[in-house]
Design brief:
Length: 121
Amino acid sequence: MAGQPSTGTPSLFEDGDERNYSRGAIHEEQRHHLHNPEGYMKKDQHKAMDDMLTKDTQVQIEERYKKDPLYSATMHGNQPSKGARQDAEIQAEEAEMLRKKKEKADNMAGKKLEHKSAREH
């Protein structure tokens, strides 16, 4: 029984620490889900919050699988393939090009506004 809590249920504990969620955290989390745990008993609130946070984590992992070509191999303890590494490089280059284009467009928009203001005076 070493390391096990002497009170409460095992579902309320993680690594020996009780998981408590503030009312604000519960309210904020329910805004992102179609689930309202505020009316639950305390024990059930914690379980509902854990479920919602687990779903959020699963969604984030699924999105990363879709967007990061290296993630799948890394998560399985493997080295990414040459093709996956090339895909990641291309993806990074494209993101950098888009960032530069956006930055350039933002700078040009500011110059047009400044130029227009100078003509009005």
